[in-house]
TrEMBL record:
InterPro entries per record: AA_ABC_Transporter_Permease (IPR051322), MetI-like (IPR000515), MetI-like_sf (IPR035906)
Superkingdom of the source species: Bacteria
Domain ABC transmembrane type-1: 21-213
Membrane topology type: Multi-pass membrane protein
Transmembrane parts of this sequence: 27-46, 67-87, 99-117, 155-176, 196-216
Stored Gene3D superfamilies: MetI-like
Protein name stated in the entry: D-methionine transport system permease protein
Phylogenetic placement of the source organism: Bacteria, Bacillati, Actinomycetota, Actinomycetes, Micrococcales
Keywords attached to this entry: Cell membrane, Membrane, Transmembrane, Transmembrane helix, Transport
Family assignment from sequence similarity: Belongs to the binding-protein-dependent transport system permease family. CysTW subfamily.
Length: 251
């Protein structure tokens, strides 16, 4: 009973936790939106401009891939966020808070997601792309009607992985001034040695990750035509077996 009393009488949980929880969701939501908005076209460009792509541009692809994507991905997020404080202040008018932290979160996650998009599109069968081109489809039509629909389950899984990564990034952003559960864990769990707050925050972060992963997996399965075809074939086999069993019983 004393455990629950301590839990609901702790100001770090009853007062600070709801606000910081919403700040974490705000950071994940804003940065996730801009990551999808910018990272998806960037990943499509990386795939289309690569050697053997729909529109090969070796020099431009090398510059974007090696200079923009790889270098940004190589910088640890804590260092990246500190270095982007002037940019966050310029764009949002503040260098602290969840909105300002979303700038660094987005810039850190966009190259990561773009690389996952490129990998997903690369797995699409080249035979389907060639067939679409032979039938007179334009490059844009191939991208919108062949590449993206065929790679959609993998793209959803890639975005799910990116959102899970953003959850971890948001915790680090909180320590540097972004707010959210990371700041609460640092201020109460670390500096005040409040183990109860730290445990509660860990449970909440794990729950957020689990919800994101479950929803992403369900969406990926729902749009996967291969899963639907397998399920349909399984139902057809069960119907045939049941019909055969009925015939035997009838005989």
């Amino acid at each position: 009973m004393s455990l629950f009393d301590d839990l609901f009488q702790n100001p770090g949980i009853t007062e600070a936790l709801p606000e910081e929880f919403l700040a974490t969701l705000q950071m994940i939501g804003i940065s996730g939106f801009f990551t999808l908005l910018v990272g998806l076209p960037l990943g499509i460009f990386l795939h289309a401009s690569s050697p053997g792509g729909l529109r090969p541009m070796p020099v431009t692809n090398r510059i974007v891939s090696d200079v923009v994507v790889n270098i940004t991905r190589s910088i640890p997020f804590a260092i990246l966020m500190v270095s982007l404080i002037p940019l966050a202040r310029l764009l949002t008018g503040s260098s602290i808070g969840p909105v300002a932290a979303s700038v660094s979160l987005s810039i850190g996650a966009i190259p990561f997601f773009a690389r996952l998009v490129e990998t997903s599109l690369r797995d699409v069968s080249s035979g389907k792309i060639d067939a679409a081109l032979v039938m007179g489809s334009t490059r844009l039509q191939v991208i919108t009607k062949v590449l993206i629909p065929e790679a959609l389950p993998s793209l959803i899984s890639a975005f799910t992985t990116t959102l899970v990564t953003l959850v971890g990034y948001s915790a680090m952003a909180g320590i540097i001034g972004g707010g959210g559960l990371g700041r609460l864990a640092y201020n109460y769990g670390l500096q005040r040695f409040d183990t109860m707050v730290m445990v509660v925050i860990i449970v909440i972060i794990v729950a957020i990750v689990q919800v994101i992963q479950i929803v992403g997996d369900r969406l990926a399965q729902r749009v996967d035509h291969r899963t639907a075809a397998t399920a349909g074939a399984g139902r057809s086999r069960r119907v045939r077996r049941q019909a055969a069993a009925n015939d035997v019983v009838g005989v």
